[in-house]
């Protein structure tokens, strides 16, 4: 039985992933900002077979609360071996271009808050010599584009941070999984025009579940995004800068 902390538990991808672990009888500690949503999700996960479901509400940009959050998860689950970090915000790119304060908020939510959490989690799992940390980054971090380079730079920095953390924790038997979803049909992308490349949260969740079980390093979800991003990364800069992406 896993003892799993899910941060950003009200996100569509996190909810779908939690259902898969609940069906295996795992114990879950959920963190989100909306108490009503968390209560509904927790009730559903118990019905699906979770051994235990506990939840707390927290604004994850309150960095000073992170240490207590990790301690509560460890205490109430009576141990901690798996963590999924799924929170984030796809803020308005144009607003961030005009106002540094808004750009900084995007970086705090999508990068700095995750680094704060990972520092605490990594130290704990490294000390116990086992565990798995899975973090949702994004294909947006693979190459900067004019349409979302502030969000993308936060995710790109996160991807590099996770690479280093994976290198550090390998000898401690702690896996670090970088998850790179492409376009996902969630409430966060409700205003976007959908097409063939868009995936359902349930599809991404199944990929996350399999990647955690296999202790993979990096996974693109769905899989075809690996090919798409390979091509995008290979485009020479003198051509790429002329493209409207």
UniProtKB/TrEMBL annotation:
UniProt KW Kinase keyword: no
GO cellular component terms attached to this protein's record: membrane
Gene Ontology molecular function: oxidoreductase activity
Keyword terms: Membrane, Oxidoreductase, Transmembrane, Transmembrane helix
Family per similarity comment: Belongs to the short-chain dehydrogenases/reductases (SDR) family.
Transmembrane region(s): 223-240
Alphabetical list of PANTHER family matching this protein: DEHYDROGENASE/REDUCTASE SDR FAMILY MEMBER 7B (PTHR44196), SHORT CHAIN DEHYDROGENASE FAMILY PROTEIN (PTHR44196:SF3)
Signal peptide residue numbers: none
Protein name: Short-chain dehydrogenase/reductase SDR
